[in-house]
């Protein structure tokens, strides 16, 4: 008993101590946004330290399962930084904990922080006091404030008795998520295990290419814009082992090559529709890809003319469409093979998009007979929805996305592959389709969207289909669209519904949007408060660029007038 009381005292002392080492500056307020906390890197230490406390508590609550912390601000400017927490399955932290995360980050003084933690552990039944272990894996990107913030996170984790922090080094966001997921599955979880899995499954995909299709070989050259972030660094490490591809990394993050996310990266190229820094006329006609600063976003592009720097863009919606076509094709081969009717693989395939998905992509996917559903913006919503299917494919237009397979589906696929491999059928189309799906489950990062693994799956599928960039780009034509940002006094005064496609408050705003939209052919427009910036976002689509611009502009005026 006395020992228990001592432990309890020690726990309180540690929490008070760490909170006084990272005081919250007056007037500072953190909100848990679409992807964790994000702000000027120099101001982030209190929030990151408290995220460390939170991650350790989360691990304690979940019987010591490993939880992850990534220190990154993704595509934001180099001066910013942020922190995201990964749950034991490798996905984003359970949303039910977000209010506590925000309250903890904003606790005004050490005593308030202690009381908050004590109340929370009581409510949640978390075994505080050092009798149980907790484990937190940490990773960070290449930002200059990363090391200092990593130390703040370590101090936060170490303030919880029984918690162990493991620094996994400088990583892409999806690498850390993959490590957390693998560790909790009891499989090898180091960086070299991650690379081996990617390289081997990519090789298997190429070994399974149809030999009899004919036609031109796909150009092997691929130029990757690494956004001067961590993704380019990692790709440089493995590119020599990727047979069948000739990868050139630009904006690779090497000293002197440029500034993180500045005039480069997936966010820049997708929004501006121009070439990133470091690309020029000699690259016309070459397949190119862009990653974002922490390599969880992927887009493709190609320059079509040397007279300007405009690009043809393949965004997340088209990557999703490519994955959907490929997976559906393999399922069709497996299930419609006349000679093996007894061997089928029933699978519910679901496509998950947000309101930002280009309307043409949704129409294309629905036209294929696929089930398409919508969630609010943010991977945490999309991923969760995708898990409801045997195979769930989700992407945001900006290039965040992945494919998830249910455990049940994977075990059925495994047993089907085993059955077929032991029969004369092992050279059949059905067997190859099953093997391709198996390789895809290994290649794609099922924890979270991953630009590196996504890129390799794209490349394998393009080779499988013998599609050039142009073939892919012409799958459907994007509807012209426009995104605008509006500064308002309080963006939280806008409340949305129906996966953010409608405004419920102020109600007069939705009436105005409807009235404006009705004036345009193929018009679609919605507004929502951003979860990462202090702005209201306006999105509009219409049959011409001029109309999309004009619709966005008139709705932005209404937002300004009502809330500015
Ligand atoms: C329109 C848009 O691109 N929104 C982005 C952006 O969220 P906002 O809540 O819109 O600020 O950042 C998120 C995190 O990176 C990303 O998931 C999302 O897609
Ligand atoms: Mg990112």
Tell me what the structure shows.
It holds the Pfam family PGM_PMM_I. GO terms for molecular function: metal ion binding; phosphoacetylglucosamine mutase activity. This protein has helices spanning 2-21, 45-61, 98-105, 110-124, 146-158, 173-185, 191-207, 230-238, 266-272, 316-336, 359-367, 379-386, 407-421, 429-443, 451-465, 469-473, 507-517, 545-563; strands at residues 37-40, 66-71, 80-86, 134-140, 163-170, 221-225, 246-250, 287-291, 298-303, 311-314, 349-353, 371-374, 391-395, 401-405, 481-486, 495-497, 502-505, 524-529, 536-541. It is an alpha/beta fold. The strands form five sheets. The chain has a five-stranded mixed β-sheet, sandwiched between helices. It has a five-stranded mixed β-sheet with strand order 7-6-8-9-10, sandwiched between helices. A four-stranded mixed β-sheet has the order 12-11-13-14, sandwiched between helices. β8 (287-291) and β9 form a beta hairpin. α7 packs parallel to α15 (451-465) and α13 (407-421) runs antiparallel to α14. The radius of gyration is 24 Å and the shape is globular. The model has no long low-confidence stretch (mean pLDDT 94). The structure holds 2-acetamido-2-deoxy-1-O-phosphono-alpha-D-glucopyranose and magnesium ion.
Summarize it:
With 564 residues, the protein is α/β, with parallel strands linked by helices.
Oligomer: single chain
- Please give the number of β-strands: 19
Question: Whole-number average pLDDT?
Answer: 94
SS-based class: alpha/beta
Termini gap: 60 Å
Specify the number of helices: 18
Strand percent estimate = 15-25%
Rg estimate, integer Å: 24 Å
Small molecules bound: 2-acetamido-2-deoxy-1-O-phosphono-alpha-D-glucopyranose, magnesium ion
Helix content: 40-55%
Q: pLDDT under 50 segments (min length 5)?
A: none
Walk across the major sheet and give the strand order: 1-3-2-4-5
Shape assignment = globular
The biggest beta sheet reads: 5 strands, mixed
Family: Belongs to the phosphohexose mutase family.
Function: Interconverts GlcNAc-6-P and GlcNAc-1-P.
Catalytic activity: N-acetyl-alpha-D-glucosamine 1-phosphate = N-acetyl-D-glucosamine 6-phosphate
Enzyme class: isomerase
């Amino acid at each position: 008993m006395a020992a228990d009381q001592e432990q309890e005292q020690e726990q309180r002392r540690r929490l008070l101590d760490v909170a006084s080492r990272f005081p919250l500056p007056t007037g500072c307020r953190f909100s848990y946004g679409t992807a964790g906390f994000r702000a000027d890197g120099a101001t982030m230490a209190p929030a990151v330290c408290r995220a460390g406390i939170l991650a350790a508590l989360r691990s304690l609550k979940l019987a010591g399962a490993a939880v992850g912390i990534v220190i990154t601000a993704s595509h934001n400017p180099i001066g910013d930084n942020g922190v995201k927490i990964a749950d034991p399955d490798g996905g984003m932290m359970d949303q039910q904990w977000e209010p506590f995360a925000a309250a903890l980050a904003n606790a005004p003084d050490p005593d308030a922080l202690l009381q908050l933690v004590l109340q929370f552990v009581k409510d949640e039944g978390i075994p505080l006091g050092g009798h149980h272990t907790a484990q937190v894996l940490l990773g960070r990107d290449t930002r200059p404030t990363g090391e200092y913030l990593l130390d703040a996170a370590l101090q936060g984790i170490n303030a919880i008795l029984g918690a162990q922090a493991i620094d996994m080094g400088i990583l892409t966001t999806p690498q850390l998520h993959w490590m957390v997921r693998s560790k909790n599955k009891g499989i090898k979880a180091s960086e070299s295990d991650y690379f081996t899995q990617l390289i081997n499954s990519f090789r298997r995909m190429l070994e399974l290419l149809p030999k009899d299709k004919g036609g031109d070989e796909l150009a092997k050259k691929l130029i990757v814009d690494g956004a001067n972030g961590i993704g380019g660094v990692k790709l440089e490490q493995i590119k020599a082992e990727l047979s069948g591809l000739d990868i050139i990394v630009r904006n690779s993050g090497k000293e002197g090559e440029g500034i993180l996310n500045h005039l480069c990266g997936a966010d820049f190229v997708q929004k501006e529709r121009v070439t990133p820094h470091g690309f020029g006329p000699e690259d016309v006609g070459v397949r190119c890809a862009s990653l974002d600063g922490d390599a969880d976003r992927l887009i493709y592009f190609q320059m079509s003319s040397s007279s300007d720097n405009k690009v043809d863009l393949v965004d997340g919606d088209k990557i999703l469409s490519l994955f959907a076509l490929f997976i559906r094709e393999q399922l069709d081969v497996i299930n419609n093979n006349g000679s093996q009717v007894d061997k089928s693989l029933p699978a519910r395939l679901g496509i998950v998009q947000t309101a930002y998905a280009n309307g043409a992509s949704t129409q294309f996917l629905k036209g294929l007979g696929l089930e398409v559903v919508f969630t609010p913006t943010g991977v945490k919503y999309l991923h969760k929805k995708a898990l409801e299917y045997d195979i769930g494919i989700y992407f945001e237009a900006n290039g965040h996305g992945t494919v998830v397979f249910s455990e049940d589906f994977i075990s059925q696929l495994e047993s089907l592959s085993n059955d077929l491999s032991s029969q004369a059928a092992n050279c059949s189309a059905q067997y190859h389709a099953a093997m391709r799906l198996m390789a895809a489950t290994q290649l794609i990062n099922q924890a979270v969207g991953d630009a590196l693994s996504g890129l390799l799956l794209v490349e394998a599928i393009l080779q499988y289909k013998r599609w050039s960039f142009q073939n892919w780009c012409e799958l459907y034509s994007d509807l012209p669209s426009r995104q605008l940002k509006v500064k308002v006094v309080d963006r939280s005064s806008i409340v949305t519904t129906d996966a953010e496609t409608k405004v419920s408050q102020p109600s007069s705003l939705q009436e105005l949007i409807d009235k404006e939209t009705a004036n345009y052919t193929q018009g679609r427009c919605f507004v929502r408060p951003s979860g990462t910036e202090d702005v209201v976002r306006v999105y509009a689509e219409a049959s011409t660029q001029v109309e999309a611009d004009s619709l966005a502009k008139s709705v932005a005026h209404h937002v300004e007038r009502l809330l500015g």
